[in-house]
Amino acid sequence: MQFTFSEKNTINNFCDDLFDNKTQYYYEAKRSFGTGIAYFFEFTPGLKIIYLDVTLNNLILFKWVYKPMSEPSLFFLFNPTTSKSINTSIGETAEKGYTIFDQNNNRRKIWLPNQRYCVLMLEVKHCHLETLNSLLGTNNTLFANYNPMNKLYFQSKINANIKIILNQTINAISDKTAQSNILLQIKCAELIHQTLINANQRKQDSITNRFISDSQHISFPRFIQKLERNIDSIPTITEASKILGMSRSKFQRLFKSHTNTTYHAFVIELKMEYSIELLTSNHTVSETAHLCGYSSIGNFSAAFKRHYNLSPSDISRL
Fold first, then answer.
1. Predicted confidence (pLDDT) at residue 251 exceeds the cutoff of 50
2. What is the mean predicted confidence (pLDDT) over 131-145?
3. Residue 259 is part of which domain span?
4. Can you list the pairs that 216-221 forms with residues at least 24 positions away whose Cβ atoms lie under 8 Å?
5. Structural domains in the chain (count)
6. Domain-located, residue 214
């Protein structure tokens, strides 16, 4: 199953295709799609909010495909923990952390059957950033300086500040009063502000370290950027620790502190995400294995099966 976000296929269509509308904002998943709920809000002229808490019956592939000249949008995907979930179902969610990207990235995302996904997604038109800025009541240059042609893509864990605002946002979603709509927009503005601060800090870290030679100690943000740009030749832990000028044990400890995961798990996730993009962009399994740095199709297929419980060909047939 596929759903492609585009100029003509919006969050509104997503709700109509996969959910039954029960009240003004509240939806329930269609049986053919899975079980769970969705809350959908649209504020003119450019903010859409959808909160999902669903378990799927079948695999679904999400794509974001927009024409270059279309009105630019930013997408924010937050994967909160289950403690503040509106739905009463139990169990860990399949993803955590958050992702920001703009429509120029042509992102792809795969969700697996029989796993629970708890996601808050915001779609913000570039023209609406100034409105959100005024809601905060501050002179926020982050919104004003955002350039939609930068191809922003940023992933991170949910820190304490974002977690507080995220919980407040979900509480506002579940509140049916008219006043909650104003609060919801304010909380979304705060969420966007806080996540752009984190993304901007990462960018500044990259600029700060741009003039450091490869033979010298480099920062983790810059090192991670190098991994993302060279997925076909990612260094081993031993090689990575030498690049960063530290012992293997220190590298592993600091890497986990910085990313909230191990180096091995980070690399696997990076390769698997990239493989989805390749397989759904008409690359063969053989090409995908090579571009993801695997020495053989067999090794790649085995890793893919362990990660997704599916074969690469299952994805390429979508």
1. yes
2. 64
3. 220-316
4. 216/245, 217/244, 217/245, 217/246, 218/243, 218/244, 220/244, 220/254, 220/255, 220/258, 220/259
5. 2
6. no
